[in-house]
Here is the input.
Amino acid sequence: MMTDLEIAQQAEMLPINEIAAKIGLSAADYEPYGHYKAKINTRFDQGTINPEHKLVLVTSINPTPAGEGKSTVLIGLGDALTELGKKTIIAIREPSMGPVFGMKGGAAGGGYSQVMPMEDINLHFTGDLHALTSAHNTLAALIDNYIKWDNQLNLDPRRIIWKRVLDINDRALRDVVIGLGGVTQGVPRETGFDITAASELMAILCLATSLSDLKDRIGRIIVGYTYDRKPVSVGELGFEDAITILLKEALKPNLAQTLAHTPAIIHGGPFANIAHGCNSIAATRTALKLAEYTVTECGFGSDLGAEKFLDIKAPELGKTPDAAVIVATVRALKYNGGQNAKELTTENLAALEAGMPNLLRHIHNLKQYGLPVVVAINRFLSDTAAELGLIKSVCTEHGVTAVITDSWAKGGVGTLDLAREVIAAAETPSTFIPLYNADTTIKEKLNTIVTKTYGGKQVILSKKAARQAKQFAELGWGSLPVCIAKTQYSFTDDATVLGAPTDFDVTVRELEPKLGAGFIVALTGTIMTMPGLPKRPAALNMKIDADGTITGLF
Here is the structure.
């Protein structure tokens, strides 16, 4: 059996101009990056979204640490829709090199449902994440330089909230002290590093609708507070143009293709457990203009990425999904039902049945928005007929169609049944219902998510978070949506509490204003904005020979 990388390396790609022509792009609409990648020009007119064009959102249940193949199903679905004669574009996020070299691996799909060129996409691609890293750290350097030389606004070095970032997992950089070594080295202060995917600039890039909107949003970023605790923005410091210049090329969506040559727009990569978890509005709007069906994703489950897509991205996008797909696996449901992680390949109907409430809650979460829902059962070789049949029968009892998919092994052909159900769902009339009213308080929004989406009892604000909520309301930020940073493994803020628990509290330890992105981040539990590497990182399995052939990348 070939690995994902071996399958990708043996595939024949079409020149990028042929992919562009498939979706009606002229030579002036894109800039080739080699033979198989391109940037779509920001001057390309995304125009008004055609109301007849369909948007399909793919999410998942709470996963095992290894992931459940959501991207693989999404890519297979895109290829299947193309096979059924629908003009289709998939719009997904760019991978971060942190997980690629860590535990989770890349985000280019797998088996015969992959985006190409797989190695480039999982590594440097077109340099977007490097540009974001440089722009973020340039702003950090400008802030420290401002404090050293004049500091006319009396920015308090103890209250700088703009950290530095890297596109790697590096726990050693979470908390650092800078400016040591004497007067010439700057002002000593405590700070730290986040991963680039958690940068507010990443969120801004994914929510900006134009170059001018990008600059306006960057100008609204709050970098810290003065000695009398007044917020200071990038615009007040005068750095917004310089940072925008560094992101001018990164703002352009990237065009690539699947193994079956379905066009793929891959752009932006915020994590859903620590950020808003959605690809760029520019990418999604471009796909919606050019294709009958746009298949897009959100990170992790409905409690994280889907909630943020629907409450943060959709209002900015100007369109809500016409249908939603929940990716479920036998092994993840058994994991949520209490089966030992090392025994997930062994049939266990009792554990599977005990884990089914997790899937049912995710179904409920999307249905409460008024969305038609289809469940995609991503088949693994160890799944038994009895286990697959149990999932399908429980879903049927609850009025939802569940379809077994073989995206990894068969690509689009193995996803045709799912595609047919998605088409039927997307053509079903529906009315979108927002989860919360923007005019409610920060705590009320958080409480709504905890009770309606997580199934919990209430949100509890720490003393610090309560003080911040009051301050933010006084500053006029209370009407912004909220973005909860939380573990992806549980509906609670504790990664060890699996299944579908009830009657629990979620504690918010701190709030962070992201005015450029346009939301308030709520940090819960022990969630980290700079991940660490596992004991045996994926980097140890990677090899490269004298000819430049790579193995071990996944």
